[in-house]
Amino acid sequence: MNKTKIAPSILSCNFLTLEKEIKAVEKAGADLIHIDVMDGHFVPNITIGPLFVEHIRRITSKPLDVHLMIENPAMFVEDFIKAGADIVTVHVETDNHILKTIDVIKSSGKKAGITLNPATPLNSIEYAIKEADLLLIMTVNPGFGGQSYIPAMNEKIRKAKRMIEETGRHVDLQVDGGIKASNAKKVVDAGADILVMGTEIFHSKDYIKKIKEIRNILGE
Ligand code: DX5
Ligand code: ZN
């Protein structure tokens, strides 16, 4: 079995010492760097844009996992790819032509992720899943770090895993929101391959210890 990937979300880190924070999670064994892009329309919060991603690209060789919580994402995917994103994930709720967006991302040699809000049913990705490289199950309503995991998402993760298996393709299953050492095993047992973690990692005192603790819990 493949090792679970851990993707610290920089939303919860100290932006004033961002380089130090990213190098520290890298050293602690992070597999990806998760970057949350919010526009104040699709979600009630505003964060960062392509320019910021470009700067992060210069300080890490880890894959940059860019989660777009913005309206009209198709208008911006190429900018984020140019800035150095390795994975670009788009919400189905805000893209009327998601197969086209997936194609644009994949044609640039990058990984195309699709995602849905907690209340959006999985049947909305019945066709997109046949083309995507990654499926992100949001386990909180997007917009903020530090929220609690929504328990009904256990079943959604399991169903998503089955849906992926039915495609016969390799699609990474990622979870994001309220993921902690205490529920990591549960979501991995349900089928998650990539754990996004914001507060659990960046609000801990020792990133090395925290990631070790998570790996121990997972038996990896
Ligand atoms: C929420 C973001 C998450 C967030 C997760 O809208 O997509 O990536 O940073 O933070 P935690 O792990 O604190 O729930
Ligand atoms: Zn995210």
Keyword list:
single chain; alpha/beta; globular; binds D-xylitol-5-phosphate; binds zinc ion
Low-confidence stretches: none
User: Strand arrangement, largest sheet?
Assistant: 1-8-7-6-5-4-3-2
Q: What's the average pLDDT?
A: 98
Please report the distance between the alpha carbons of the first and last residues. Answer: 10 Å
Hetero groups in this structure are: D-xylitol-5-phosphate, zinc ion
Work out the radius of gyration: 16 Å
Largest sheet: 8 strands, parallel
Which percent range describes the beta-strand content?
Answer: 15-25%
Summarize the helix and strand pattern as letters.
EHEHEHEHEEHEHEHH
The protein's oligomeric status is single chain
Topology:
Blueprint: E1 5-8, H1 18-28, E2 33-38, H2 50-59, E3 64-69, H3 77-83, E4 87-91, H4 98-107, E5 111-116, E6 134-138, H5 153-167, E7 172-176, H6 181-190, E8 194-197, H7 199-202, H8 207-218
Parallel strand pairs: 1-8, 2-3, 3-4, 4-5, 5-6, 6-7, 7-8
Helix pairs in contact: 1-8, 2-3, 6-8
The protein binds D-xylitol-5-phosphate and zinc ion.
